[in-house]
């Protein structure tokens, strides 16, 4: 893929120097549920993914060793650079992985692999860079916004956790930066929201946005509606949740089976995602665009396109004109962060 060709509605980043020499890179997306690793090549500005593999994150205690083993399986493509997007704040080349209770450092990876050019970046920063590799087919537009919209951009990504990132516009180029906005406070608006917050306070004490806008959060909303509000959980659904991915089964119960408790769960989830998206856009003045990434939005795309998401997104204090000008897209590519880590690696020395 030619990474220097940008779509108008996607961010414009600095492009890597075009060189005739082919180099190999390792890119990674290390999340709370899954870890994607890839070997890529880049020559003359053309970035290609040669091999990629998915792993269950909880099955691996030592991620530096996992990267070493992955590289060893392709001795014909020795990497000169490694970039891994990680779910947590990176400080001085180290990260405590928020939802895995493990740590990783650039030094660990250098020692395990022998590769000296190594970078850890936040996974939402990686997703932001990944936007540079997308095409129109990878986006679902919820709201077109203002024609030729320009300015800062924002990404919000619910999955195992809730990631957020900003993309600063300097007038010529965009510059991604990570945040930990998912760990800011959940802001209830209605009596039902307050009741949910109290339910979650009993469970977690501090209720962040991530506690309601994530896969585990979706499950907690469902259990609140069942245990506190008395909504019925059909036996077949209970069995499916017990034996599978709770968030996936609940969203499927709303989209495919019209189950009342699932419908209400997703109604609240969509509203909370919309409100937090609006908050993020206003805090970053993200007039260039809002991108909904992570594992959940593509799965519930039809629920986000009914008008309910946009309705609640627009429920703001005197900033409706600004909010309505912002284009809103769902990122329908589950490897955006992996591609973004690869893109970042092309910029490394």
UniProtKB/TrEMBL annotation:
One of its GO terms (molecular function) is glucokinase activity. It is an enzyme of class 2 (transferase). The keyword Cytoplasm applies. It is found in: Cytoplasm. Its EC number is 2.7.1.2. InterPro entries: ATPase_NBD, Glucokinase. Its main location: cytoplasm. GO terms for biological process: glycolytic process. It catalyses: D-glucose + ATP = D-glucose 6-phosphate + ADP + H(+). One of its GO terms (cellular component) is cytoplasm. The keyword Lyase does not apply. Keywords: ATP-binding, Cytoplasm, Glycolysis, Kinase, Nucleotide-binding, Transferase. It comes from the Bacteria. HAMAP family: Glucokinase. Belongs to the bacterial glucokinase family. This is Glucokinase. The gene is glk.
